[in-house]
Amino acid sequence: QVQLVESGGGLVQAGGSLRLSCEASGGIFAMYVMGWYRQAPGKQRELVARITDGGGASYADSVKGRFTISRDHAKHTVYLQMNSLEADDTAIYYCHAEHLSRVREYWGQGTQVTVVS
Question: Mean pLDDT of all residues in the chain?
């Protein structure tokens, strides 16, 4: 059973930055593709960014050039650096882990990000 604990959310002004962290425990970190999703009020949860065990990253078009996902295998942690934040980035951000076999996946509890103008 993998446990994911997010941190780093908060309130920030438009144009500002935040860094989210997600520490994983209970599994072999390198065996999981890690990702960040977000869900805004009244909207479906959407993929923001994901990173493979080898470090290959992909992003939603809406965050390309502004967000960077990274992972530290020694710390079992995945990060989401968010720059040039916009009001539309306001959402609950969830950490996600998907086993390479795709038969198991886990979610964190979510962390709120609020961007004000």
Answer: 96
